[in-house]
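Table S7 (text form). Paired inputs.
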Amino acid sequence: MILRSVLYQMLLWCIATTIFLALLFLPRTADYTAGPRGMFISAKYDYSAQVHVQQFKDFFKYIKDNKGLGTVYNGHSLNENILRTFKKSMLITIPALMIGLFLGIAKGVFDFRIRSRRGKLFGVRTTRFFLSIPDLFLIISLQLLIMEGYEAGILPHIKVYGSEEPSVILLDIIFLAIYPLFYIANITYFSIRDEQGMDYIRTALSKGTSSFKVLYRHVLKNCYVKIFSHTNTITLYTLSNLFIVEYLTNYRGAAFFFYETLASPAIFRTGQQFEISLYPAAGYIILFTAIIFISKTLSQIAKGLVSPIERRESS
């Protein structure tokens, strides 16, 4: 069952990557109508399937002829440059996902245990509060608080912008982990709550097992399948949020340069064609979709390991 699911995810990855590349290689030529002195009047776009297919052919021919994506400058490989920036992005993405997953589970358990106590304000209500705040607002607010704290003499000097600064790397990890943490906390809380009243819980409690042991040994174990099924969601959200974090902190990672490859020119004149860096963008697309595929595969394997039903079906 697990092997079949992995093969199915691989097929979906190939299809998704092909679709993204097809969108990337759409012809971008347009016919302009200009008036006196080159004044813009109108523009017309005519899609050509032949040109579209030729874009694909040129891409694979270029890779074959150059044994990769070519060079950037002074003999440096574009492949190496893309991998270097991608590793920088993964340096903040992977820790953020791990923090979001494991601390999210811990926060969900905490929310459930204090749901009827005085401290419940710091439980599920806090989780819902942070889920309702836009990340962009939260990131900018935290940056401003750090700078104001330094001006007031409360905090030491902490750099919030830069590509190689350890403090920026740490802040980026925190920024990326905020939403996954509270998202998983919310899923964990409701998964535990849905398990309440089950026969196995009443049986365990009737045998004198403490509620603490029942929660951690039985209830939480049955919730892992639901929790792990959402790992792909937090991966997608983290990757989509990666550009915002890198841009706001001037962190030169893959998302930052991926945007640079797709950016339109700052100045436009009549007759100008909007060209983008196709081949670097294609490289980033393949890598980012591969991360989604790996995340989904690991999620399926994790569910198989914690679920008796999955294990029986895979055997």
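Next pair, protein 2 of 2.
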Amino acid sequence: MFVCAIATTLPLIIGLLAHQMGAAIFGSLMGFLLVLNDHLGTLGHRLWTITLTCMMMLGGLTLGILTHGERWLLIPLLFALVYWLGLMGGGKGAELERALLFAIFQVLAGAYIQGLEHYMVPVLSYTLLGYLCVIVSLTLLVFLRRHNPNPFARLRASFKQSLTTERSHHLYATGYASAIVLSLVIVDYFKIDHGYWAVGTVLIIMRPELKQSVYRSIQRFVGTLLGVLIADIIIYSVHSPWVAIVILGLISFWGPWSIVRSYWLGSAVLVVMLLIILDMPNLQRGDLHTPMVRLTATGIGCLLSLVAITLVNPQDIWRRRPR
């Protein structure tokens, strides 16, 4: 939790002092996401996992920027990456699965954020700063608080397990990737504001089991609604970036705990953090546009995920019909 607070706030502090808050946002998000993929183990394993995750995220961001405005390149790339992610459905890939999920998020961000290619140097600088914050603070914390490492799965073993030949996994992966591509086409066709957020929601919610997907969809929307309401209050009442960074540090300290504790609570905390970070450049104006866009995109994503999982597994619906 300490590492999460440091990695989330330090890039924003430096960005505020250097008047580069727009680029610092990427460093803050990088630091937070890297902490989320720290599942304990030996220090060497944890540092390698964080480094691999950072490399995959930077690679995803680069691929997204290169495919910006080129849907004929983005769609097959996205299909391939999500197909591999689908093969890990159910947690078979553990840390590797989450690293790939974060990389796909970066592909979407790079492909949809306008003008990002013109700010690559400061963006990369702050993302690397977020990475260094995690590495340094985690190393210091491990040496100060020595403990026996928990059992962990080797990344190489996780990769081999993801190359499954089971027919059911490949069928789900095909449906999963098709659902993501279809969601992308829908949000593009209707020109939904920040539509890639809705696609990201589908990525997170969809699971092979219908019941679990419905459960996660409901909890995701409830958590997002609560998070938007809390973020609205903070954004509307706090106009000092320094005060906002302090609040963000306190919230991010409890971020990893909330995700483990409850899915809806974790969703709410994540939304509050994300909206505060994204609104940092506009905080003095108290702009509430971003929270409402986030809520709308999440609602659309939840709806798309329910439709998609029903189409992927129609047999679950038929089994539940009364005879």
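The CA atoms of residues 65 and 321 lie 46 Å apart.
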